Structure formats: C-alpha cells, structure tokens
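Progress against Task 2.4 (sequence-to-structure conversion) is shown through the following example record, which the project officer requested during the mid-term review.
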Amino acid sequence: MGPVHVVGATVIDGSGCDPSSLDLTIENGRITRFGGSGENAERLDAGGLTMTPGLIDAHVHLGLSSPIRPHFSFQISAAEIAADIFAAAGATLDAGFTTVRDTGGIDGGVVTAIAKGKVRGPRVLSCGPVQCQIGGHGYYGAEWEPTELWSSHHIPGLCALSMMAGNADELRHNVREAFRRGASFLKLCVTGGVVGGHDRLSDTQFTVEEIAVAVQEAAARNTYVTVHAHNNEGIRNAVEAGVRCVEHGTSLDESTAALMADREVALVPTFAVVEQLLHDTAGAGLAESARDRANGVREQMAYALAVAKHAGVRIGLGSDLIGPAQDRRGKELSLRAALETPMEALVAATRTNADILGLSGHVGVITPGARADLVLWSGNPLEDPELFSDPTNAVLVIQAGEIVKDLR
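Structure tokens generated for the chain above:
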C-alpha cells in the first residue's frame, strides 16, 4: 500500500494516557506522523471508531488448536492438525491480535509460513517445544509409553509440544535443539499444571542448577527464559536461576512477588483458559479431572494479580487458550478489566506485553516510528470492555501498514 492517512478515530495509544482525537499517516508499514498528510496519501475515514494499538497476547498455544488428548494419541491427521493451527492463527488476527508469543506447541515452520504471508496470522515469537522434566508437566504420553517415544508425537515443520530432560546435560542439549529449530526464547515447566498429564499443581520441577543451564544458553543468544509456574517454590527457584518472566503465578505470595520485583521478573497471568476449562473442558479435548483442577484457580490467580501489582511487578497479559475454541482471545482483556480497569488491561495487552517480548517501541503503542499495527473498534472498549471479547467488534485490523481485516 501507498501512504494512508487515517482520520476521525478516537485514539487510545497504549501508553495509559486518556483517549484523544488524532489523525495519523502510515507509510512503509510504520506510523510516520500525526496530523496532516502528504498530498498522495489515501484517506481512510475512521469516524465513530476507536483506535488502539494491535493487541499482543503473551501466552498462546497455536499448536494446541486441536483437542489435546486425540492430538497426542495419533487420532488426528497431520492435515487436520495443520488446518486447526492455521484457522487459529487467522482467528487470532481477526480478534485484533497482531503479535503473539507462542509458549509451546508449534514448530518454526508455522512461524515461517505466517511470516511469509502464506497463512493469515499475527506476528509470532515462539519458544518451539517447551522444556520439561521427565514425567513432568508438558508430557501427555500414556503411562506405559517409554519417554524416548514422546518425540514421535512431533510433526517436523508443524508442531512439537515439549522435550523431556532427565538432567542438566540433557536439558542443555534440548534447549540448543530448540534454538536450532528457530526458537526466539525458551520456556521451561518448573511446576505441575492445571492441564496436567502426570503431575500436580503442587509439584516442583527442575532444580535451580538445571534452570540456570537454560538461562545460560538463552543469554548466549541474547534472549531469555520464561517459566510455567503455579507454586511459590517453583517460582522462587526460577527467579534465583535468572529467568525473566513467570507464566500463571497462581499461588504467588507477597515475599515471592517482592523477589520478582527486585529481580525485574515479569508476570503473565492467564485467566481466559481457566474460564475455558470451567465451562468447556470436553471442548478442549480434556477429561473432567481438568475441571476439578481448575476449580479455585481463578480466585487464587486474582489474588496473585493483586499481590504482584502491589509489589510493583511488571504484569503482562496472556490468554493460554487451548483446543479448537481460540476465536475469542480478547476475553482475557475483558476478564482483566473486571479485576483492574479497562485501561490497565489494554496497557498490559499492548505496551507492557511489547516490553516483555523485547519489542518495546516497535509494537504496542501508537506513536511515530512504531509499526503500524492498529485496530479500529466499533465502540469504545474503555467504556465497554466486553467489546474485546467479540472479534466482530474489531472492524478494521491493520498489520505493518496492511489492512488484514475490514468489516466496514
């Protein structure tokens, strides 16, 4: 596209400042200026719409877009799994999310296919397969299945949920393999989880010394480690080892939050997946036991959010949706808005997430020089945050200056 002058929108720029009336010009995929346009700019009338930066989801699983249990028991073909992944990628873009951080499940081939424009989807940063302890969270093989057969569930170029390590040397090998496959950061599971195959929420996994191996390997590539962690012992182990981010943080207490704030470790809570599991466990391809695990987690996570906020922890936003129902990713913002304010939820999903992903100033804000990732909403989500939950309210989505969705 040539230069485009967007006029008439109410702009919420992602900084936390009050909305304003701004016209802006887009050239070569970036916002070049506010105010007047050049003579050759195409006019895009956004009167009556509210503009926000393109949303960012810091915790997605595009590779888990098929029902989980059938996916990992060879009941679904590679073709159908691919179709589900690409459908979820397109739905993510249509919901107004122009950048996501995939925290386990896809192979680098999916990232490349989207980046080349062969598949509709957001900009994707991926950890590749999650790093897990043998028998820990992230393993969904049958109890009788030897651990060494787990990698046969990977589909090269498409999906690879996790890699198992029994000691520090094996973990070092696995993280190097993840980087070889195109990972841009690393994720480790250091506690059990809600959607667990053979683990409990109270389990602590990997030692400080083992986690530190992954941190060392990530630092050698100028990137970072984030961890799946629900209990405080696992979180503290990870923080002591030098990780930069914690996913979930369900049971976070005051002293652990203070440690995270002191070490500048971010937190990404995930409320939408808990709602999903409580209301449609079967739809995600999981047993009813997952619903039992999810009971009470939302209340704990809400308390953890308040504790982290009080401690001054940098708090991002992630949906963690799994299974085929990934079309209403914006529900995470609506849920967060009910616990904080709509503005705080939006800033978490834009400027703060961009900072956590290492993209600060490039995405997540509306300012000259930033990439032109923009969403125009049919209403004001600060006045009605439920607008985020319905993708049809995102009437126009612009990614790197290109219109990728237009319902006007």
